[in-house]
Prior knowledge:
The chain contains 28 helices and 15 strands. It is of the alpha/beta class and 758 residues long. It folds into 2 domains: 2-304, no CATH class; 323-642 and 669-757, Cytosolic phospholipase A2 catalytic domain (3-Layer(aba) Sandwich). A hairpin with a 2-residue loop joins β6 (466-469) and β7 (472-475). α8 crosses α9 (222-252) and α14 packs across α27. The radius of gyration is 31 Å and the shape is elongated.
Amino acid sequence: MKAWLKGFWYSFPIQLVFLHVRKYQVLLLFWFVLFSTVSGSFMKTFGADSLFLAPEYLGNVNSLSMAIVGASIGMFIMSWNIATFILFSKHFRFLAATTNPFLKYCINNTVIPGIFLLFYFFKTWHFAHYRELIPTVEILFLIGGFLCGLIFILAISFIYFFRADRSIMRRMMPVIKDPGSYITHLGTVKEVYHDIKLINVRSYFESPLKLRPARDVSHYTNEFVASIFKRHHFAAIISVLAAFLFLLLIGFFLDNDFFQLPAGASITIFFSVLIGVAAAITYFLQSWSIPYLIGLLLLLNFFYKQELIDPRNKAYGINYWNKEERPSYSREGLLALCKKENVEADRQNMISILDAWKKKQDSDKPLLVFINTSGGGHRSATFTFSVLQQLDSITNGTLLKKAFLINGASGGMIGATYFRELYRQRQEGKNIHLQDKQYVDDIAGDLLNPLFTSFFARDLIAPAQKFHIGTYSYVKDRGYAFELKLNSNTRGFLNKQLKDYAADEKAANIPMIFFNSVVTRDSRKMIICTQPVRFMMQAHADTTQIPSVDPDAVDFTSFFEKQDPYNIRILTALRMNATFPVVLPNVWLPSNPVIDVMDAGLRDNYGQETTLRFLSCFEDWIKENTSGVLLLQIRDRQAGGWEMPYLSDDISDHATKPFLLLQHNWFKMMEFFQNDMLSYFTTHSGIPVYKVAFGYAADNEQNKAALNFHLTRREEKDIIASIQSPANMKSFERVLDLFAKKPALVSDSTLPILRFIQ
């Protein structure tokens, strides 16, 4: 037993694991990321595990999509083998005396890949069964597809290396036929090998089932051994280059659905290229690798500052080339924009729209309805759309007729905008049944796979490709890929420009929409609307009593008047509203100085802040012309701030909590503040304000939909089912009461009553 344990300890597979841990630990980080992603511990809230465990290709999770992921994992395994073989070969010189040294290295280097594959199969079965609700038989086909892809890539790789090995042996034959040139005691020794002893191998697997003792090759010159390995290194680098070219090809043809690989595959292929490049740089540059990378970064930064390269994402449709008339983003520039006469002109324009809305109502004092929807990726988009479907149904199709403004953040705005467009088409006589489930499936359709595929295959590798909107050209990146897929998912209905909605909004045929985003420079809000809204740039107040404040918002169309602002795509406006950090690129805008914007949720995740400012601006009109205001708040989480408390069992939490407190509680603090704002407004305005909230709540925490742009089948079902929760059903009943002009439930008081129905 002792001898067996000793032999096991000094076997090549075990010694290789120790070598990986001792040298170039950075290469193990790739495996760590894969393990943690598949396990669900890395980016769990964003659903990163679904990209690998339920990959979509051409809109389906099937054997083909799994085969593509399997092939990508095979590429990564081979790339990792290649990288470590190049870096570690000097530590296992005995392989130089064998045939097919790289093949034998791969056989013995299967411990980590083997453990990962077993772990992956277990997690795949669990995820597919419990999250995607896939029957066991279909799961077996999925795993079979994965194995087919994996085996195919491994087979191709080994065929290539078999051929390379034969070619190497032919080139080495003149040397082999002259023993004096490579055996130390038969000729002049130019270089003597000194064993580093980082690895002590006594046996290795010549084949998966055949164990052999390692040969002593100390009698071989270092020059001879190095020449053999160097020839194999060149063959290995060629294979990494092939993976790079493959990813480049994918990026070049990414607009074609056929080339939109599952995101998990794109990520893994990129890792394959990255790990190969890292090994090549380390091998060839040795100690100069770090200075080389620093120099490369400095060079790229120089090119960026000189505007020789420009990786920044643009708002598609507006003019970036009129550099002489760019607006000044400064205190003076914004104050000039919202001068009293400008604000008053925009107010009068909005009052005319309010008057047009009132004429379409069925009473002299109608209820003014505002729809506020929260951010929250696909779960918010799907929940928002489902709630609007239900509200439209129970109100006999009058919901959007009574609604004046839709406003909010991120995913919720995607769902609301799609619903409004379907309503618009129904009003125009199109055969649109708003309660049809196909539209829910549209909005729940995957957006994450093309986004990640574009990021790794196009943004980081592929050369810049351009597309045109009118006379303006823009570079294709993951922002473009996001819009392309969103347009496809929504049947092309949202492929419009801001100007296409101007007439209908002005005539109050459809509710207005504020597309919001946040200026990263100073956290000011950027508001995109078909109508000028300079009255929204400052808090509405009596300047005779309190000092005037600087603008904290920007009216997009007025500010970028010289940049064709009404040409901006609706898809782009939605993306600016939903630009989650890192996942989507920040959108930079042509001002002086340049500014960029990102997700509206950073400033007003629930839409309530913006709505309250609007109400404050038109307080007199609302008092005179309406019976009150109804705020319909549709949110992807329960109210009260009780969800996901900031807790940790780790000792490191004592050090990190002060720094992460704000990040974890941002939305909760926003909610507390906005509830105060609402209370102040209702108390001092005298306007009856009714707030009815609809909140998504999972049937259990395990099934809760992730915060990303991808939903599993169980998550979609859970979201749709949650609208029938007891709390939401009470909210639906409350809306019916208010629409039926029964605003008071328990009190006959004439004072304004604020009620939160959760």
